[in-house]
Every structure is written in structure tokens, then in C-alpha cells.
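agent> step 3/5: call structure_predict on target 'Zinc finger BED domain-containing protein RICESLEEPER 2-like' (Nelumbo nucifera).
agent> reason: downstream docking stage needs a structural representation; sequence fetched in step 2, passing through unchanged.
tool.input:
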Amino acid sequence: MPSESDKWGWKHVSVFGGFDKGSGTKRWKCNYCSLRYNGSYSRVRAHLLGSTGVGVKSCPAIDRSLRDALQILEEERLARKKKRISGSGKSSKRIRNSQPSLSSVWKASPREDIDDSVARFFYANGLNFNILNSPYFHDMAKAIAAFGPGYEPPPVEKLSSSFLHKEKTRIDKAMGPIRESWLYTGCTILCLNRLDCALGSFSSNVFVSSPRGFIFLQTLEINEGNKADNVLAGVLNNVIMEVGPRNVVQIIMHPRHSSKSSESLIQSKFPQIFWSPCTSYSIHMLMEDIAELDWVKPIVLCAKGIEQYVLTQHSSLSVFSQNLKESFGPTSVKLSPSYRLVQRIVELKQALQELALSEEWRQWKLTFPEDFLSIEAAILGNEFWSGAHMVLQLFEPFVRLLGLLNIDECIIGDVYNWRVQALEAVRSKGIDEIILKQLEVLIENRWETLFSPLHATGYILNPRYFGKGQCKDKSIMRGWKATLERYECDGTDRRVLREQISSYWRLEGSLGEEDALDCRDKMDAVAWWENFGSETPQLQTLAIKILSQISSISTFQVSWYENSFCREAANSLEADIAADLLFVRNNLRLQGRKIGNSNSSSVRT
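tool.output (status=ok):
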């Protein structure tokens, strides 16, 4: 019979009593889930390993990696037992376990020494400190601690072969439910391209997004040249065929990295798929277009002049401006830099005017060119400040509402509502009608260039925005018409959708039930259509597919634009192994983001 020291399970429970002296039956509590049981070691082992049939539950607090480590301990125990039995015939003689216990190792290696070893590993290998926040790092640490002393890492050749294949198979299996959901919710192909001017090539990272989750498909290095567009179109063609043409609602690519040639090639073969600009980029461009209005541009240029000549030269103001409290979130500031510049100058008005009247200023301005006098006049006069206040009034509703809009998570339709609400807020400020008209014309003219027609259709189909007069808005109805013509090539099917949207607007059948009306702004838009749209099945399907899509690729830009690992892997490994490694690594990063928002940035390596 093996000694108690060979029963690894006792180290993972707390024993607080036995029934009889010398009995193997004890009272114990699991160190992970705190459940209490009475029983022998076989019950402890079953609880920790997830075995059934001995009257205890599987520990709910042990994850897969820790359970695998515990299973290894059990297999080693059984191997030692087998060796004793098949040894020198002295099977009944107890063999003392020469391996030190976990507690003795911990006593020999204080926490500080262990921390030093971890830190040294990071320093020696030049690793990003954010790896410490990775859920996979913590899983690894727990598994090694559970195994105890004597653990040896797998050999390098196995990491690039059997273990890599095993992990890829596991990820493929985990992706099964996500892939199956595409038929119901549709999906979006996200294409992130990064240009490397030095090498004359760009890398293309291709993802698929749906409500069930994100999937990384592949990375491709494309050399710039006349055939680059054809290569990119070929990659997207293969991806569409893999995902399923009827499952793909749209492709999103940053406009600066897109090409009309690739777009034309794809749309000629898959006319039902939308080629949508990134919403973050489009909003940025729209806000900067507003800054180019005839009466706004001079104010912005003057503010830039003040920043260039004063804030960057005068240390006290420079520090002050850097420490200004942001009035809006980082996203709104990033997407409207001209507004933030004017706002910053206005906040510094008193300090700037005091500086312009000082003796220091008189001496200082002698070293600047003559056009600096216009900057001085702007600071001390009233014209610039009154114009700046007018610019802030014009921009403020757009920026404020943008700060409330999570671009990375908002669904199609939310952005159009942002446009409507912002214009209504501008009107309420009593701004001059001529200026207001210029703003409306600008947005109307630029909207269809910068945004997909899916935004207008999403604004129609989202029950939260029901009754906003969409059917009387020419811009919205043009978007609806464009969506129908792309989504359904058959005239009869389009007519059915037109009839059913009328039923939606007229609140016919289940769409007009009391619960349907009450839940418009209380339920998720897709869930609302699932519950109340069954009497208009074709429209229900369209609504679910469109309202299930995201509209921005900014979620991935920070994480993957600096992904130099792609090229390093391709250069140092065989092509197939490099492709598998990138597939595994990037999908684990996506899973790491999903484990918890607190750990979402931990996989940026």
C-alpha cells in the first residue's frame, strides 16, 4: 500500500478530522471550491480529477489546464505503484518518495526568489510586461505549481509539431459553434492591411466577426505592384468561399489600405456583399470635413498658429495644456482633433492674454517672424474668440454624442442616429440658419461616400429608433433601396421585403403587440426581431443579419498593426508551421480578450 506522502491529492484539500484513529476516512474541504466531504483518498482524487461514481461532485473551480496537470500527477503515481509491484518482488515494502514535497520546495524558495526568476526570464528574453496579465500566463503558472517539483518543459521540436497540432485541433473544435452561427446571423470579414514601405510590401490580416465571436483566419504578405490588387482580391475570394458567400454581409477595410480595383473584382463576383468603410475612419473624416467649412477653417488655422508659436515655446503654458482635463472620452478626442485644438486654446484664453501683455512677451516676439503679429492680434482681440466659441457650439453636440457612442461595440444604425441627434442639438442652439444649412448640405453630400447604406437600413430596422420618420427621409430611403438591390437580386423577393417593411411601420400583427411596443428600447435589437418578427420572416432574417454586424476595425488596429511576430515566424519556420502558429497564436489572443475585459489588453505582445 502506498504511503500517504505518495497521495498527491491530500496537498489540495484541508483535512479537519478523521472518524477513527488510523482510519483512511477523513473530513476534508477542497482548497479550490471549499466544498466539504467525508471520505477516503479515493473520493479526494475523484473530486479533483472530475471522476464520477464515488459520491462526490467534480470540483467546479478547477480549469482544464490545472486538471490536466493533476491528471499527470495521478499517472505518475500509478506508474510508481506499477514499478513497485513489478520490481524486486518486495511489493509490500514501502518505498519512500524521494521527491521533495511542495511545502518543502516553497520553504526553500521564498516568494521573492520566485519573483526574481520570473522577472529575470522577462528581462533576458525582452518580453512585453503585459504578458503578466495574460490569462494563459496565469494558467501556466497554476499548472506548474500544481505539478510540483520535477517538472520539465516540453522539447522545442514538440512545441512546433505535436503540441502545435494539438492546440490547432482544439481551437478548430472550439470554433465550430461560431462557424455554425454564421448562417443565422451573417458575419463581417475584417481585413487589416499594414504597409511596410522599406520592404515594398504589406501584410494582410483577415478576421471574421459575428455575435458569437471573432476568428482569425490568416495572414498574407503581399508585394506591392501591379498585381497586388489581384492577389488581395484572390485572398478575399478564398476567404469568402471558406466562410460561405451567403453568410458574408460585408467586408470592412481601412479606406487608406483599400483599392477600388480589389473592391470591383470582389463585387463583380459577389454582388450581394457590401464593401463598407471603417466607421471610425469615416467619422474622423466627416469631423475634419466640418473643420474645412469656409468660416470654420480660419478659426482652426489660427488656433494651430497659436499652438505652434506659443504653447510649444512657452514652457509653463505647454505643461498646463498637457495637463488639461479631457472633457470627453479618448475616442471622441481622437476622432475630432480640430475641435479639441480649438477647445484647448479657448480654455487657455486668460493665460494667453496675460502672457501677451507681459514684458517677457515683448522681448520674446522680437525673435519671431512678422506673421507672429497676427497671432498676437488674435489673442488680444475679440474676433477670434467669438468665432472659436461658435465653432465649439457647432462641434459640441457631435463630439459629446460621439463620447457616448462606443464605436467598437455599436451596431449598424447607431451611427446614423448619432448624425440625427447631433443635427437636432445644433438646431436647438439657435445657430445662424445659413451656417446650419451649410452643415446639413456637407453631411448630406459626404454621408453616402463615407458610410455604407447598411447604416441607413440598420437605422430603419432597429426597433429602438422606430417612428423617427425614416420613410420620409430621402437619404435613409436611398440607403434602404441600395441595400435591397444588393441583398436580393430577384425583383419578387425585393417586393416581399418592401411589403414587410410596410407591415413593420404599420405595426401589423405581432409587430404591434403590446409586448413588442413595450420592448423596443428594452431588448437587444436582434432579440426583439427573434421574438416579434416571425410574421415577416424575410424581413426578420434581413434585420437579424444586418443588426448583428459591427462597423469598425479600430478594435484590432492597436493589437495587430505592430504584429511583427508574423514576419519573424514566416522567416524562421517552414510555411505550414508558420501558418499554423499564427492561426493558433492570434486566435488565442482573441479568446484571451473574451475571457474578461480586464484582461483584454493582456495579449498585446
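agent> step 4/5: record observation. The longest helix spans residues 162-185.
agent> proceeding.
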